[in-house]
């Protein structure tokens, strides 16, 4: 059974193959299989990018998407996550994509016999986001070795920060952090915290993070203006960035908080490229967990 619960589910070789498959995804056409394969999308937390790009990926792969409305499901009657997923497995769903507020929710799904694709677990991991970030960085710089990536902002509450820091280090990048001391996470940031002013001068990639107000009270002493001035990517700081350095952000963006509004679509910004890559990466993930390249006939489109 192939899952994607964290990037630990992949060897580095498998991860590299997934990125290479994602890069090819707009050149590959997958033929419909009969009967169609159904994937269920279970989102217990709000999402725009991850949910919609998994749905786009499913459409483009000729899969059927089963929409699961948490608020109108038997979750409201107390049905557990395990029983919900077991039910979907029983009625013929072949894989589930799950976003859930609980960290490592997938541990309660160990006896499930269909692939689990983690679309974000609380402050735990966000493997598909990380893969699309890696794809975007790879398209820009080709190799990860020797790059300096600075992850900025609310590190402690961010699943994106943790997943990216771990994998980028494994791939040979130097990873530093900038942001308020109280939002650092010693487990990953210890000894690698730098100031924003140093970050913009040294980074190849400035990875800006949204303040995760759904997981803590942003007020902790900060107004939006004060935060922007102290730790935001301001117009002034952007001018100090290296010639070829780029800006990433998983989005949604809080404009004029972690990043100046006018930088969101500036020449260095790859924020919307990341979203476009999100569909390619999610197609590759679904193809990987469902073995689509083996069960479906596929062809290259020139
Ligand atoms: N980046 C990301 O996960 O966005 P959504 O919450 O909109 O899916």
Description:
With 302 residues, this protein is of the alpha/beta class. The chain folds into 2 domains: 7-124 and 277-299, Rossmann fold; 127-274, 3-Layer(aba) Sandwich (Rossmann fold), CATH 3.40.50.1370. It is built from 11 helices and 10 strands. A 4-stranded parallel β-sheet has the order 3-2-4-5, with helices on both faces. Helix 5 (159-170) links the parallel strand 6 and strand 7 (174-178). Helix 1 (12-24) crosses helix 10 (271-289), helix 4 (127-141) packs across helix 5 and helix 4 (127-141) packs across helix 10 (271-289). The longest helix has 19 residues, at 271-289. The chain is globular. The mean pLDDT is 94. The site of phosphoric acid mono(formamide)ester has 9 residues, from helix 2.
Which short descriptors sum up this protein?
302 residues, alpha/beta, Rossmann fold, four-stranded parallel β-sheet, 11 helices, binds phosphoric acid mono(formamide)ester
Query: Which residues form runs of ≥5 with pLDDT under 50?
Result: none
The amount of beta strand, in percent, is 15-25%
CATH-assigned fold name of the largest domain = Rossmann fold
Overall form: globular
The level 1 CATH classification of the largest domain is Alpha Beta
Radius of gyration, in angstroms, nearest whole number: 20 Å
How helix-rich are the residues, as a percent range? Answer: 25-40%
Give me the secondary-structure category: alpha/beta
SSE arrangement, N to C: HEEHEHEEHEHEHHEHHEHHE
CATH architecture classification name of the largest domain: 3-Layer(aba) Sandwich
| Distance, first to last CA | 33 Å
* Secondary structure: number of strands: 10
User: How many structural units, i.e. domains?
Assistant: 2
Strand order of the largest sheet: 3-2-4-5
Report the bound ligands by name, code or SMILES. phosphoric acid mono(formamide)ester
The biggest beta sheet reads: 4 strands, parallel
CATH superfamily of the largest domain: Aspartate/ornithine carbamoyltransferase
């Amino acid at each position: 059974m192939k899952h994607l619960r964290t990037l630990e589910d992949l060897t580095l070789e498998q991860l590299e193959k997934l990125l290479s498959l994602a890069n090819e995804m707009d050149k590959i056409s997958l033929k419909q299989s009969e009967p169609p394969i159904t994937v269920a999308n279970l989102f217990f937390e709000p999402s725009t990018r991850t949910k919609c790009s998994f749905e786009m990926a499913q459409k483009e792969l000729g899969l059927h998407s089963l929409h699961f409305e948490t608020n109108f499901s038997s979750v409201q009657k107390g049905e557990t996550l395990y029983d919900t997923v077991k039910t979907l497995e029983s009625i013929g769903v072949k894989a589930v994509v799950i976003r859930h507020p609980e960290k490592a929710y997938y541990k309660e799904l160990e006896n499930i016999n269909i692939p689990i694709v983690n679309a974000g677990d609380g402050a735990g991991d966000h493997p598909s986001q990380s893969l699309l970030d890696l794809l975007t960085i790879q398209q820009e710089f080709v190799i990860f070795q020797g790059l300096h990536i600075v992850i900025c902002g609310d590190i402690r509450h961010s699943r994106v920060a943790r997943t990216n820091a771990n994998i980028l280090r494994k791939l040979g990048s130097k990873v530093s952090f900038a942001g308020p001391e109280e939002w650092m996470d010693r487990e990953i940031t210890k000894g690698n915290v730098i100031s924003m002013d140093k970050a913009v001068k040294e980074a190849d990639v400035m990875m800006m993070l949204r303040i995760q107000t759904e997981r803590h009270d942003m007020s902790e002493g900060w107004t939006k203006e004060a935060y922007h001035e102290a730790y935001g990517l301001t117009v002034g700081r952007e001018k100090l960035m290296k010639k070829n350095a780029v800006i990433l952000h998983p989005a949604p963006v809080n404009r004029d908080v972690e990043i100046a509004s006018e930088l969101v679509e500036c020449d260095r910004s790859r924020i919307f490229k990341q979203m476009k890559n999100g569909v390619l990466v999610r197609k590759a993930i679904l193809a990987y967990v469902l073995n689509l390249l083996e069960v479906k006939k596929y062809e290259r489109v020139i």
